[in-house]
User: Fold these one by one.
Assistant:
Number 1:
Amino acid sequence: MDNSTLTSLIGAPVKAGERLARHCSWRVGGPAEYFVAAKTVEVLKRAVQVARAVALPYRVIGRGTNILFADTGVRGLLIVTACDHHRLTAQSDAAILYAEAGASLPLLANTLAKQGWAGLEWAVGIPSAMGSAIVNNAGAHGSCIADVIQQARIIDGEGREITLTASEMQFAYRQSRFKGSREVILSAEFLLKRDSLEAVGERLRRFNDYRRATQPSDPSAGSVFKNPPGYYAGALIEAAGLKGAQVGGAMVSPVHANFFVNTGAASAHDLLRLIRLAQERVAERSGVRLEPEIEFVGEWGELIPAPAERPFDHAA
Ligand SMILES: Cc1cc2nc3c(=O)[nH]c(=O)nc-3n(C[C@H](O)[C@H](O)[C@H](O)COP(=O)(O)OP(=O)(O)OC[C@H]3O[C@@H](n4cnc5c(N)ncnc54)[C@H](O)[C@@H]3O)c2cc1C
């Protein structure tokens, strides 16, 4: 299989060897064997169908803000959701938002807040696509996707297109049935409520101000580790003396210890070694095992021995 055959089968340009550093917020990562930007839901569906039909490993991604791509790259077909259509159906003081998988979560949060629709303000600082926000049950400021989602249109593990209700998505803290599964989210619907422009605008400003004051602006993937029950991962890393610690071009942010930043020339390997260092030091000092919130994607060889952290390719 070559990229021109894939291009004609999928009906959208498939590139070979696209650098993944261009498609993730950490700005690291080697080439994708094959790469396609799905600008419509139809292309997204076809890319998945074709990959399944020709037994090519595939993975669908959003903005790459929760992924560490390996320096050696990724086998198979990387499908970026660039389908970003949305529409609002309003009925007096409630509205249903329909959004495609590639819609920008912060853009929608901003746009809807300016129209006086409440429900997504908490997401204003999360640089996510809508589909991946559902996969991760993204959340902030005490709210999350599970609070507002009504249903999603997906391709299930057997390749069938089906609709799931919120309760079928098995949401938990930064978790859903989609994480680590072969299912692909195409679009979803959310319930919003009418609120005063002042109230929604005030929450938006407060959340934006909070982020600016507490989070670094250098390239990162947000929180590297989940907060273990009863702890804050950042506080544990800071207590282990690692704020500002560096491995190559990767650094524990002096602003927020659960954010690891690329200071300019970091490799994925640098970031992985810094992640390991934090896990070891925190375990030594606090006896707590930090579990990554970010995902490791690609070919790591012996670098990732722990089964829970093995890179995962959706094999057809
Ligand atoms: C500065 C910064 C701040 C952040 N703050 C927060 C925060 O406050 N709260 C929070 O929860 N997260 C936060 N994050 C982390 C991150 O933005 C979220 O996890 C987000 O939901 C990931 O979105 P993405 O589009 O980048 O997903 P990606 O990293 O591209 O993908 C994430 C996962 O979803 C899968 N996936 C993507 N799209 C689909 C699809 N359509 N169907 C099936 N699987 C799919 C991917 O394969 C991957 O497994 C932050 C990140 C940064 C960089």
Note: The CA atoms of residues 87 and 313 lie 32 Å apart.
Number 2:
Amino acid sequence: MTEMKLGFFTDVHARATSPEGRTDSFRESIFKKMYAIGEIWKQSNVDYVICGGDLFDSPEPPNSVLYEMIDVLKSWNKEIYSAIGSHDYFGYQLKSFDRTALGILHCAGVLRVMGLEGESNEVRLDVKKRDKMYPHVDLVFNNHTYWLEQNPKELELPDRFPELVIQVIHGSVVMKPVPFPHILAPTLNTHANLVLSGHIHQGWGVKKVANGVTFCNPGSVGRLENTGEQRTPQVVIVTIIKDDDSHDLIQKIELIDIPGALGHPFNDKVDKKINPQVQDVARFLQMVQKTNIEAVDLKQQIPLIAEKLGYGSEVIETAFKLIEGAKT
Ligand SMILES: [Mn+2]
């Protein structure tokens, strides 16, 4: 009997300032949660940790936030593999990676980002580490791309029995249709045994679909939007047990509440419809300012980005005006 334990967390969105409507210090709360997550990993004795992306809320957070992140991740004392989330790079351009906070963590060896340009998006976890033997487990990462939901074929994974495959996707993988581009989990043609995903901050726990694939999204560690619902941030522990006689691989997937997370740290008076939109536009404009894309290319992309974020023609018009203004 051999056993491997993996920890999964996603969408931390670490930042220095508190999102509008939060009643606490977001920064203080987020790092408190990150230390609490480290305790979960230690208590469960996980062998590896996986991040689903959006570790930071922007590609270039203040150095003090980066410093504190390095400090907490090192205190976990675990090997960490990470996907690239939609907030982790500039203008959805992978070539911007080397000037991002996540890029610095990767370069410094604090964590390992998979699927960088010219590099593999797959890793086979060590079968033997220290004195312990593990089952064969492959991790396959599908980083965020601007077109991810439009090309579900790129997420298809062929059968590679008898190994156990875990696919990590930063994109809108959902259980029920939503009014923006998405991938319906039951329609995804994957032979992964387990699909871990981030990006949809509400999460939907653990669901097994008809073709036998288990999907899991524990929801974001950081709560940026006041959805009006109380949700306790969670992480996931995946236990993979291999029976030496039958060679069966058994997976156990547990959702664990992060101890000490506040109940619902939002001001009730905040307009629930406007608040998340304001934050998205602010982030979008930040990317517009910092991106290297020519304005003409960006203008072509705006209607698509606006559609992806669920905005109408007024937002597109405003964005066009801002870009025209920026050029003069
Ligand atoms: Mn996110």
Note: Residues 292-297 have pLDDT under 50 and may be disordered.
Number 3:
Amino acid sequence: MSGNWRSLNRANWDERVPLHLGSALYDRAHLRARQGRLDAIAEAGLGDVAGLRIAHLQCHMGDDTLCLAQRGAAEVVGLDFSAPAIAAASCFAAELGLVQARFVQSDIHDAPAALGTGYDLVFTSWGAICWLPDIRAWARVIAQLLRPGGALFFAEAHPVALVFDDAAPADAQGRPGWDVPYFGGGPLEIHEFRDYADSEAVLSNSHTVQWLHSLSDILGALRDAGLRLEWLKEHPGCPWQMFRSLVRGPDGLWTWPDRAWLPLGISLRATRE
Ligand SMILES: C[S@@+](CC[C@H](N)C(=O)[O-])C[C@H]1O[C@@H](n2cnc3c(N)ncnc32)[C@H](O)[C@@H]1O
């Protein structure tokens, strides 16, 4: 494995921030209109956040963090290791006057020291855990951040979907081909010049190191860290066009034309014992 996975990945994310700031995928009009919204899966699963102390892990440019602040969170802190992402998030929070939101640049593995503990809710979603080598360390960080009885809300690409890629030969229906094994998925040395939010962009920092964590590894890590699963859902959609053959539904989620081929997302809620 590239020993410098952290610096490779951070350079990749730093480069994406200015691209995302101008992209339609990260359209911020709803936040400016004080009507921040999450993706349909998070909207359906998260529940009321009013009055809660929330830690948002791997918050990118903070759009969901700021949405949680607009929903009445007492305090919400977004964490990301990308300095440009944290700068963009802090700037936008100031523009919106959301004083209950703040942003901290830190590696996720240092989150308890960087953010403090005793949170009512940890929120983390979409495209987060593939950047982390050790899913058990991730789960322990979440357990440390939460107060007893506090909850994790987690929404993520379904690990089964992640074995496929449009770069592999498609099947007769145009669906993506098999790319990587489901088990033992990583480290994956990836060279991807494209950005998911800006089709024109060509990334200079195109080499990243990622991991595929199986569903049982995710659930086992949370259980062993002291979190009790309340519910888990598998979804036929996800909030971005993960594959070329997906179509967008009325709820804004992307799904297979027949919806049924494979799951694309998971969401879960787990409570710290
Ligand atoms: C796909 S984005 C997550 C976006 C998220 N769904 C949101 O709320 O907008 C992945 C994020 O993880 C961050 N990241 C990756 N590895 C990290 C690490 N080791 N520690 C902290 N942040 C990390 C990246 O900087 C990036 O902003």
Note: The chain has a mean pLDDT of 96.
Number 4:
Amino acid sequence: MKRRYSSAFTSIGLSPIVAISEQIRSVAPVFEKSGQRFAFLQRGELADPTPDFVIDATKRALDAGHTRYPKAGGEPWFKEAVIQHMAAEHGIDDIGPENVICTYGGQEGLQLVFGLLGGGTVLAFGPAWSCVLENIFPFTGFEVDTIDLVEEQGALRVDFDELDRKLAAADVLYLNTPQNPSGKVFSREELVRIDELCRQHDVRIVSDEAYKDFVYDGREHVSPLSLGGDHIISIFTCSKAFAATGFRIGFTICRDADLIRKLTLGEYTQTAGVVPFIQRAFADVLTMDEPRRTWQSELVASLARRRDRICERLGPLFGGSLYRPEGAFYLFLNLTGLVPDAPAGEDTSDVIVQRFLDQGIAVVPGTAFGDDRYARHVRLSFSGVSDEVLEEALERMIDGVFNGQARATG
Ligand SMILES: Cc1ncc(COP(=O)(O)O)c(C=O)c1O
């Protein structure tokens, strides 16, 4: 019997985030027997329920009978809603329906886009989201090269000389702003310089803007799309901004209409298109004023408070070097000097994650976002827990994980 499999499938791995979630399914109940609450800080989704205005819009869409085959690429009224949303929220007013495709969340957008771009070398800022590294890039035949963001006095900056060098050998740049896992929000000035270099090297930008609605301290999310040009492909999702990860809807925008047409053919081939009543619901939600605005601004304010609390409690331990996330809902902690070395022969990253698990806290190992150079990092999410559970977890982290140890000020 000839049993061959496509290398696209055999080269992908189980995302470490999924792996850790499976592990804690058995660990958490055991911990909770001690009478304490387990802290799920590995989660990349909000603990908040999907808001009523989303549920109601979905029920209305079902009642209105949006249950037949969808139009591949997205219904015209969904695309119209995206166009209005981008103009109202981000001042981008020069896109038409031919520049928009509706996808099954950001993940399908990424898979379609990288699938279409057809392999080669993709350059990504490190640390980078595990799913692109483990799944999307290998699945679509891309080799990844990374350029690490440079930590400097509590800030993360781009080394533009290195970027210039690395872009010379790249086919595509993957840019994620706000960034998972660091929480960096790329400024307009940075984006302009990055874009200039990409144009010089004739490199397309795939811009992952999954967290566009999560920016703090009055910052603005700048979509690279606002810089103009048809070499930028921006990928959006409704998963995070509406606590709606299970609805699986998002959209991708590019001024190159031919590229969108090709993506549409790809989508037709693999799924025939996104569930129409979900499209109808989100066409309403994306263009809704209230209660959407109030719900989102309260959500972002509560996340900012949680971030502040974490920085307040952990900041002193990090001797002034703790990076304060500007967006998204994660902290990427460098634990060098805060946790003891792993015993000889043991994996540093596993030992660190286990220290957290022993204290009833789930985090994602740093290696998921690069490789061994992040073995002493962990990603901690402040989206999936209540203020009270977070507070208890911080207490156990300081006493139990770090043993009250602090890094020298530097
Ligand atoms: C950086 C980034 N991009 C894209 C996504 C895709 O999300 P979804 O497929 O749920 O829309 C995620 C989800 O965690 C993410 O973290």
Note: The longest helix spans residues 292-314.
